[in-house]
Amino acid sequence: MPGKGPSLEDLIGIEHSKLGFFQELRQTIEALKDANTQSAQRRREIAAILDGITDIMMVLTSDLRILSVNHVFRQTFPDVPRPEGMFCHQIFRGEDVPCPGCPASASFAAGDICRETAIFKIGGKNVQFEMVASPINRPDAPDRHILVFKRDVSREKEYQAKFYQAEKMATIGMLATGVAHEVNNPLTAIFGFAEGLRRRLPALKEKVDPRVMEDVEDYVATILRECRRCQDIVTTLLTFSRQKTVSFSAVSLNAVVNDTLKLLRSHLKQRNQAKITVRVDLSENLPMVHGDEHQIKQVMLNLLVNAMDAITGPGRIIITTYQSSKGAVCLSVEDSGCGVPPENVDKLFEPFFTTKRSGKGIGIGLSTCMSIVKKHQGDITLKSTPGQGATFTVSLPVNPEKTT
Q1: Read out DSSP for 110-159?
Q2: CATH code that applies to domain 56-152
Q3: Where in the numbering of this chain does the Histidine kinase domain appear (predicted)?
């Protein structure tokens, strides 16, 4: 009949239909809640894993801009509250161009994992990092990203270098002790007989031609002088190689330079055949530094030997001591050798890094120098132009508040 409403059965069917819809909707909502709970739990698990990583971690874009970092990055750079959007080389180097040998750039180019080590100055200290850059493969993402890990290996490398240096110095000490005994025995005899001749010269003056007597006196004086010089060389060699407890006291950098040159005098004469000139400019009234003389001599020896090795033909070496405007006592060794390529500047103080050919060094000399200078609360810097030489400068405080 017209105007007749829905029957009871129709109404019951409609209510059942609504009830089924709401049940399905409630199940869907519960499923979404469960999925959201699982997702939140999964996010917390991932966050806990990331928080457990002790390395600096960054995600970079193809132009080396930072997308995200972990908590270790923020702890390392507390003065950079929002690193996102900045270039990584701006933060680590303060430069506007990418670092030489950047593993992130290499990873982008190769599409594979790349590794590299480098030294960065963070918080006023040189920190050596082992870096791993890995591409992030996301087919659904149009942009390419790189995940970079930086692990601080400064202490590990330092311990390795100390171990090899200790082995090397122990071997040198044994050899030096043997050489000292073998050389001192005949040297003592030569010195004793020459001294005996010198005492008998006055009795021979009236019996020998004056010109011959003058030559004999000169010969005896030369023998005695050279014997004393040999004794000084042996003593200096033992000072360099002797294993002893580090003892800090007042040290003269000028004396360190003179002792080192005395030890290397014969080596310098051999190199002077290639016309290498050595100029020494020592500042007068230079303040004493508080340190271990043996270790500071070791630094000077390494720098001078490296300077000689960097020169392949005629050249010059300039050794200078002075007091800086900030009051530090400085020692610089400048050479006119091959210089240091920009890509090697960051690696130069790394243990076991060397550009010398096999048999000429294992690459722990400069890293040992860095370790010694840091122990004296000083600093060592390098200025170099490829093909035009290099200048190493060691700065040591005059009166450090604390020395370890």
Answers
A1: HTS-EEEEEEEEETTEEEEEEEEEEEE--TT-SS-EEEEEEEE-HHHHHH
A2: 3.30.450.20
A3: 178-400
Specify the CATH number of the domain 155-243: 1.10.287
- CB environment 298-334: b (16+ within 10 A), e (fewer): bbbbbbbbbbbbbbeeebbbbbbbebeeeebbbbbbb
- Report how far residue 219's alpha carbon sits from residue 195's, in angstroms, rounded to the nearest whole number: 12
3-state secondary structure of 361: coil
pTM metric for this prediction: 0.47
Q: DSSP per residue over 149-170, as a string?
A: EEEE-HHHHHHHHHHHHHHHHH
Check if the beta carbon of residue 318 is closer than 8 Å to that of residue 392. Answer: no
Q: Where in the chain is the domain with CATH 3.30.565.10?
A: 248-404
Q: What are 23-66's pLDDT values in tens digits?
A: 665 666 566 666 666 666 666 666 666 667 788 888 888 889 99
Place of tokens 């049940």: 23
Provide CATH 1.10.287 ranges for the chain.
Answer: 155-243
Fold of 248-404: Heat Shock Protein 90 (3.30.565)
SS3 (DSSP) at 4: coil
CA 361 to CA 354: how far, in whole Å?
7
3-state DSSP of 83-106? CCCCEHHHHHCCCCCCCCCCHHHH
